Amino acid sequence: MSLKDLKIKIFADGAELEGMLAIARQGLVKGLTTNPTLMRKGGVTDYPAFAKKVLAQIKDLPISFEVFTDDPAAMEHEAREINSWGPNVYVKIPVMNTKGESSLPLISRLAAEGVKLNVTAIMLTEQVRDVVAALKAGVPSIVSVFAGRIADTGRDPMPMMAECVKLCGAKAACELLWASTRELHNIYQAESLGVAIITVPNEILKKGDMVGMDLHALSLDTVKMFAKDAAAAGFKIL
Description:
This protein has one domain (3-211): TIM Barrel.
C-alpha cells in the first residue's frame, strides 16, 4: 500500500524553509512540525521571523512551533505569542522543563482557553494519561509520544502506543502522534495501531518511492551500488 493510501496523517518534521515548502507542495503531508533543535541545525537565528515566513506561505496546514524557556511564566508568555501567529499554529509544550517540573498546570490553563497544543517529549503511558486529562475536550490537541526514542532504549514501543491510542481516543479532538520516526516501516506500524499522526523527516519521506519495490530488484541494485563504488574508489586486492 502506498503512503498516499494510508489513513494516518503524515507530518513533515524539519526546519529548512525550502524543504518545508517543497514537501507541502507535494500534497503527501498533512501538517508540519519543528523544534528548537531542528531550527538550530537548519541555521535559524531569528525564531519569530522564521516562523512567520513559513506561515506566510503555508496557510492551510497545521504547523507546530515550540516554546523553549524553563520559567513557567515565561513559557506561558511564549505560548501565547506563538498562538497569535496564525490560526493553523499549534503551540508545542514539553511535558516537563529541564528541571523535571511538570508542564501540566500550563497545559490545562492554555487548553481551557482554547489554545491548540502539541504536548511533546512524552515517553511514558502515565504522562499520556495525565496530559489527556489536562486537555479540554473539543479543543484540537496533539499528544506527541517519542516512539523512536523509546525503541532506541531496546523497548518495543508498539504495546505502549496501542494503549496511547485508547487514551487519546477518549478525549474529543485529541490526536496521538508517533514522533522520532526512524524508518519508513514505522509509518505502517503506526497505521496498524490506529495512530492519528506520524512525524517523518524529509530523508525518510524520500524513501516513499521504494514502497512495494521488488526485493530481487532491490538486491540487484544493491550489488550494482557496491560494484560502482568499488570501481570509483579504484579498489584492488590482487
